Here is the input.
Amino acid sequence: MKEPIWTRERKAPPRETLSREQIVKTAMAILDSEGVTGLSMRKLAARLDAGATSLYWHVPTKDDLVDLLIDEVWGEIDVPEPELAGWRSGALLFGHSLRSAVLRHPWLPEVMYTRPSLGPNAMSLGSRGLVLFEAGGFADHDIDLAMSSVMSYVLGTVNAEVATREMVRKSGRSEETWVSEMLEQAQAVASEYPEMQKSVRRRTSLGLDSSLTENFVFGLDALLDGLATRVTK
Amino acid sequence: MKEPIWTRERKAPPRETLSREQIVKTAMAILDSEGVTGLSMRKLAARLDAGATSLYWHVPTKDDLVDLLIDEVWGEIDVPEPELAGWRSGALLFGHSLRSAVLRHPWLPEVMYTRPSLGPNAMSLGSRGLVLFEAGGFADHDIDLAMSSVMSYVLGTVNAEVATREMVRKSGRSEETWVSEMLEQAQAVASEYPEMQKSVRRRTSLGLDSSLTENFVFGLDALLDGLATRVTK
DNA sequence: TAGTCACTCGCACACTGTACGACAAGCTCG
DNA sequence: CGAGCTTGTCGTACAGTGTGCGAGTGACTA
Here is the structure.
């Protein structure tokens, strides 16, 4: 198993030139605004006024670059110290922080599952999360289970949320017209499924934004309720 | 917004030839065994002893083909009738059925979020799910929220699970050696993170398979507990 | 002045989805 | 029987991808 990119050491950069930091920063901007398919090594290089293959001196492969970008996102996520917030509200805060980081970087779910996250920020995040759940009073064995339940729920929900938002964005239409077009299409297809019709109608009472937030909060709250009963002391 | 592929009608197939069903079936086999990157139109055509572009007579684009494949998977998932199982165990069964379908088709999470699921099987699945939660006694507004919480949790968890299993598969190593190699690497990187060290050690007491199943069940159970307190009647 | 290191970059390869247009086989109609 | 339409196949071509290779450049050291 090959050594991950964070621990491979680099030579010192002697004069002004492309830098890994610069590359990461620009790549992040492209990814945030144009998504995974919008990031190519050629385009990235062009935006840096460089030749495509020059990047390869600073970053071994595109995959490694993406590893760096993912860890950058992990670094944006808060996990409160348990003594400041208490377990329950700490976990709530963590969930919200994770959600908003992913909303800022909607490309994350598309790439994060294809590789292990072993970067420094990922490690630190995991570590602080475990501290929080441990302080919450879970049995040894349940600490990991509880923590990973929360992460999975949040990522699962946000993944769907991001997918919806990206579909709106790519359609080029306004949020309202997209919703109404989508509605029309769903209604047409759902004519034999009265349950779906009702559901679609129910879901459009709020705006898209509040609807998605409500959805997220409802499930997270329920999950935390369920987890709370597993606290042993 | 363009009409989705299920409702666009086709001409009748007059003589023996390639068929959409055949293409879907072969594509499914490739996808299941080689994953998303393993499916190309040329390879698919080759396996059908056809020219690459011949496929395009039967299927408008590769994306449309993938839409068909996704809906095929939705068709494999059970949702019990509420009178047979009751809400709680019905939801449990649904979750397990969804999980095992995704484990059979590990490519699903990679592609399902990039498009809306409006195929007939998706509709029917959604519809039966809603019936189950409605019968469970959730308030009108909560039916959708509860159902989508469960789906998100399951998909989130299984997404991570599939990612792990795929990493093992692609490494070419046996499960045990992969786990131990991964462990070694994590330990090396995690030296400054004692919490992670402990967690890694805790997680390796069971085999990979039981560990992943336990993880899945723990969170699903907690979530359903939390949802149960939201039932109003 | 010679040599070495740090860095840039053009070219080329194998691969992708799919538009286009040429071609063939079978059916229907006159 | 023959013409023409429909159904279906497929070779070629285009624009795009990540990246290995090797040549080239400028600055610093000995």
